[in-house]
Amino acid sequence: MQIYVFYIQYFKPKELKLNILKDYFCGSTNFKMNFHSILTSWYSVNKRILPWRSSKNPYNIWLSEIILQQTQVKQGQPYYEAFLANYPTVKSLAEASETEVLNLWQGLGYYSRARNLHFTAKHITENLNGEFPKNYKSLLDLKGVGDYTASAIASICYEEPVAVVDGNVYRVLSRYYGIDTPINSTEGVKQFKKLAQSLLPSSNFGDYNQAVMEFGSQQCKPQSPNCELCPFASSCKAYATGTVKSLPVKLKKIYVTKKYFNFLVFDSNDHKTSLEQRTEKGIWQQLYQFPLIETADSVSEKEFLIRLSESNIIKEPLQKLLLFNAEDIIHKLSHRELHIKFWILKTETVARNAVKWADINNYPVPAVIERFIKNFYN
Questions:
Q1: What is the value of pTM for the model shown?
Q2: Does 194 map to a domain?
Q3: Is residue 106 one of the residues assigned to a domain?
Q4: Is residue 231 located within the same domain as residue 305?
Q5: Active-site residue, from 65, 160, 214, 370
Q6: Residue 303: inside a domain, yes or no?
Q7: Which of 1, 64, 201, 337 has its CA 20 to 30 A from that of 345?
Q8: What span, in angstroms and rounded, lies between the C-alpha atoms of 203 and 160?
Q9: Looking at the structure, do residues 226 and 265 belong to the same domain, yes or no?
Q10: In this structure, what are the phi and psi dihedrals at residue 346, rounded to the nearest 5 degrees?
C-alpha cells in the first residue's frame, strides 16, 4: 500500500492521481478487494469464539441479535444461553407466558425488546407455520426487527448480499473513509448503508458482516483504539488526519428529563408486600413495581408523609416509616434520569396487591427494583 501511494505521489499525472485517490476513498474494485482481504484476514486470527457464531439457525441468530442490541457481549451471552436452555425453539418461546419471558430478561433493560421477542415468536409459530422469513425484505415485517437485524439474519443464515450497519460498522467506515456526516441523521443513515453495501465481497456475506462488526468492537474501539497496530493504519483517513477521536459524528443528544420516584415498600407482620403491574406504555410496560408516588423534586420525610396522606394509598395503620436510602438512587435511561427513594412502610397487613416476600422473585421487575430487593430481602 505504501509503495502504491508513493507511485501515485511521484509518477502519475495530476489528473490521474486525483482520480486514483477518489477511487481509493470511494471504494473502487481494487481498494474494495484490499479492504475485504485485510479485514477477513484479521478476523480469521482475532475473532472471538461465541456460541451463536457456530449456528446458521435463524432462531439462534435472531435471539442473539435482539439480546445484543444496546447490550455488550459479556453481559448478553449468559442471557442468550439461558433463553436457549429454557426455550430451545421459537415454538417453545411462543408457548411461554409474557411474565416468564420478562422474568428471564430481567436485568437487560429496554424491555420492549423482550415483549417484541415474545410477540414475534408467537407470530412466527401461529401465522408462519413456525418458519422464519427467508429474505431481508420479509424479515423486516417482523416486529422488533429493523434494518440491522434483518441484514444480519439474511446474510448469516441465507447468504443474502445485504450489509449490516451497526455502531461498530459506523465507527469503522467513518474513520477509514474520514466521513463526518452525523451517523444519526437521515443523510448519514443512507450514506453509510450505501457505502457498506458497496463494500460487500462477492461471497461469504455473513462472515464478512461479522468480521467488520468484530473489527469495530475489538480493534477500532470507541475509546483509545490502538491505531499503530491496526492493519489499516497506512490507509485510514482518520488516522492520517488526526481525527480518530472526533469520528464518528453524532447529532447532539436530546434533552434528558429528571423524574423523582418514591417507591412504597410495604413490609407487613405476615411477611407480605405490595406489587402492581405497569400497564401503560413505556419501557417498564408489563413489569411489576412497588406502589409509586412521583414528586416534583427530592423530598424529605416530613414532605413525603404529607404526600402519603394525600395519596390515599395506605388502607391500614402505619406502624413505622423508614427511608431505605438516604441519598437518591440515580437510574439513567435513554431519555430520563430517575431519582429514586425506597420508603419502607411497616404495617400489620397489606390491603391490596399483596405478594408474599418469599414469592417476590417470581415477578419481573425493573433492574433498579431488582437490586433493591436483593439488598433489602434476599
A1: 0.73
A2: yes
A3: yes
A4: no
A5: 65
A6: yes
A7: 337
A8: 9
A9: no
A10: -85, 120
Domain match, 92 and 163 both: yes
Pairing of strands 336-347, 318-323: antiparallel
Domain span at residue 303?
A: 257-376
Q: What pLDDT tens digit does each residue of the chain (378 aa) get?
A: 443 343 333 333 444 333 434 444 444 445 556 788 899 899 999 999 999 998 899 999 999 999 998 888 999 999 999 999 999 999 999 999 999 999 999 888 888 899 999 999 999 999 999 999 999 999 999 999 999 999 999 999 999 999 999 999 999 999 999 999 999 999 999 999 999 999 999 889 999 999 999 999 999 999 989 899 999 999 999 999 999 999 999 988 777 889 999 999 999 999 999 999 988 877 788 899 999 999 988 888 888 888 888 887 877 778 889 999 988 999 988 788 999 999 999 999 887 889 999 999 999 999 899 999 998 876
The closest of 171, 186, 163 to 238, measured between CA atoms, is: 171
Report d(CA 40, CA 218) in Å as an integer.
14
Residue of 195, 212, 232, 233 lying closest to 40 (CA atoms): 212
Yes or no: say if 347 and 267 are a contact pair by the CB < 8 Å rule: yes
Could you say which of 183, 216, 246 is where a domain stops?
A: 246
Active site residue 131: no
Assign residue 224 the CATH number of its domain: 1.10.340.30
Residues 6+ apart with CB under 8 A from 236: 175, 176, 227, 230, 244
Query: Does residue 320 form part of some domain?
Result: yes
